[in-house]
Amino acid sequence: MPSCLSHALVPQSAPSTEGEAAPAQSKAEQSPRPGSAGADPQDRDVPAVPRALQLFTFFSLTAAVLSFAGNIIGSGIFISPKGVLEHAGSVGLALIIWVLGGGVAALGSLCYAELGVTIPKSGGDYSYVTEIFGGLAGFLLLWSAVLIMYPTSLAVIALTFSNYVLQPVFPNCIPPYNASRILSMVLFP
Questions:
Q1: Alpha-carbon span 87 to 37, nearest angstrom
Q2: Rounded to whole angstroms, how far apart are CA atoms 67 and 46?
Q3: What is each CA distance from 52 to 17, 48, 123, in whole angstroms?
Q4: CA gap 131, 138 in Å, rounded
Q5: Of the listed ranges 6-10, 116-120, 121-125, 167-171, the one predicted with least confidence
Q6: 112 phi and psi, to 5 degrees?
Q7: Which of 145, 167, 179 is nearest to 78 (CA)?
């Protein structure tokens, strides 16, 4: 099992014979995490078959900031600056448009943070839509995401990457239509 997944499921404390929950170990009594300094597989006290499992819910501040930044910025940053600058007409107006767009994205991320606190289930959009609108709406969202939205997004990313790779080969013109499509299919099968 990869080390990044070794803590995805953490066993809960098993109930004692009297029917009461066993006392939780103090930090000093807990063995180190696998992959950390001083962690030895023989030193860990791992039950053979844990009675109950719970998800490991730790998400560091650094991971959260990088995740949110990646979701907010996305791949559009590689596609849209040229178009925004062409349509805005000036660099100052283009920067104002980018700042306003960043504000809208920040408000959207705050809405998702509120949903995550209100509906504490894993699954993202699917969980939120299923909880609010029911199973059919959740199914339709997931179905359209898997069959339409995600593949379309990946196709745009592949075409953009191919255009950037081909730009040095065709410095004075737009890369040929078929060349960028073929390179996209080769690089992203």
A1: 55
A2: 31
A3: 16, 12, 21
A4: 8
A5: 6-10
A6: -65, -35
A7: 167
Q: Rounded to the nearest 5 degrees, what angle is found at the Cα of 182, between the Cα atoms of 81 and 163?
A: 20
In whole angstroms, give the CA distance from residue 47 to residue 13: 10
From CA 184, how far away is CA 178, in angstroms rounded? 10
- Cα–Cα separations (whole angstroms), residue 180 to 1, 139, 166, 173: 38, 35, 7, 13
- Rounded distance, CA 25 to CA 45, Å? 12
Cα distances (Å, whole numbers) of residue 53 to 50, 87, 148, 189: 7, 54, 35, 37
For residue 100, the tally of other CB atoms under 10 A from its CB is: 10
What is this structure's pTM?
0.52
Give me the chain's average pLDDT, please. Answer: 76
pLDDT: is 8 or 77 the higher one? 77
Angle between helices 177-187 and 150-166 (to 10 degrees): 120
Position 18 pLDDT exceeds 60: no
The whole-angstrom separation of Cα 161 and Cα 184 is: 8
Euclidean distance between CA atoms 62 and 68, whole angstroms: 10
